[in-house]
Every structure is written in C-alpha cells, then in structure tokens.
Amino acid sequence: MTQEANSSTIQKRAPTLYFIAATKLLKGAALLLAAAGIFSLAGKDLGGIFDQFLRWIHVDPEHRFFANIGDWLDTVTTANIRAVATGTLLYGLFLLTGGTGLALRAKWAIWLAIGESAFFIPIEIFELTRRHSPTDEASHFAYPKLGLLAILALNVLIVWYLLKNRERLFRRHR
Known about the structure:
Elements: H1 3-12, H2 15-40, H3 46-56, H4 64-74, H5 78-103, H6 107-129, H7 144-169
Helix pairs in contact: 2-5, 3-4, 5-6, 6-7
C-alpha cells in the first residue's frame, strides 16, 4: 500500500473523532447564538420581558415560583449580563476552534479536547459527592444525579478515547 493510500485509510477510520468534532462545532455555534441573544438583553427590563413571555404562553406570572424569578431578574445588572454574554461568547469560540482543529486533525486540537473534557471531571465528581439538603431545587427531580453521572461518564469516555487513539488519529499527514 502506498503512503498516500495508507494516509487516506487512516483518515476514514475516525467516526468517533468526527462525532466529537461535530458535537463541539454544534455546541460552539449554539453558544455564539446564545451570546448574541444575551448581549441583546443588556440594558433591558428583564423582569418585564419575563412577565410578557409568561403572559404570551398563558402562564400566571403572579404564581409564587414565577414571581420569585421575576424578582431575581430585577436584581440582574447590565454588567452582569455583559459578563455572562462575554463568557458564553469566549467558550463558544473555544469550542469552534477545538472542533475545527479536531475535524482537520491538527495535533494541538487533541490536547485542547483532552484538556477541556478533563477539566470538568473533578467538578462533576464534586457535584456527585456533594450532599444536597431536602430544600435544594435539585431535589424536585426524581434522580438529579443520574444526568450528572451520565455527563461524567461521557467526559471520561471522551478523554480515554482521545488519549488511547491520539497517535493513530493524529499522525503527521502530508
């Protein structure tokens, strides 16, 4: 087999890598759209917008749950909104960069993806082991830690897959 044929065979044997790259690209694009939406809310009356939205979907805004959210939204400042939007924008750009690098099989992208996925593992373990009081919001869900456990397992799997296959997936291409 020639070097060129061998290289194209290697390129085609990475559906999991392309799935990870596509996921990162989709999440990055969604976060950029979310950041644009969040930026557009800066300087506006969030409580009023929330009240209008509830009335539009025919929900009583005077219900205690929604009234508490409305009161909280009244405390959010323009600076808070801009900070959240900026963080969302930067993380979206980070995911787009990493996803593009993975899709193009850039050597640096493997370490970026491993680092990003591994970064969240200790946080997820902490959240899984943390005790919640019966009054916590999460206790309203039947099994709140099941979703977190699934996300932790997925992140561990991604890190393991990328570490195990990094040489095969990211050989020097000519």
